[in-house]
Design brief:
7-stranded mixed beta sheet, 56% strand
Length: 115
């Protein structure tokens, strides 16, 4: 089964930047959208950003103006550029890819922002 491989998490001070990447272990076709979610400690998983197959993009209000989602068509791979990070951005970040008939989740990558 195809797996989503995430990378780029880590620890950074407030105001810093990180770039997350998510690539499938094998090529995926018929993708509807690719997205990022996050789960802060002790909280439920929440939506962060989405990029559709027509490059339509949506962001959660909490990250607008600070995070940028993008993709390239190799495999394809989705990225999340996170700038001006805040302590409240601390969470496990999950990649999500939805095809026409099923969806996949990544294993998660930890992002920790210190004040």
């Amino acid at each position: 089964q195809v797996q989503l491989l995430e990378s780029g998490g880590g620890e950074v001070g407030a105001g810093g930047s990180l770039r997350l990447s998510c690539a499938p272990s094998d090529r995926l076709d018929n993708i509807n959208f690719m997205a990022w979610y996050r789960q802060p400690p002790g909280q439920q998983r929440e939506f962060v950003a989405l990029i559709g197959n027509m490059n339509n993009i949506n962001y959660a209000d909490s990250v607008k103006g600070r995070f940028t989602i993008s993709r390239d068509n190799d495999k394809p791979t989705v990225y999340l550029q996170m700038d001006n990070l805040k302590p409240e951005d601390t969470a496990t970040y999950f990649c999500r890819v939805v095809m026409s008939s099923y969806g996949l989740w990544g294993q998660g990558t930890q992002v920790t922002v210190s004040s």
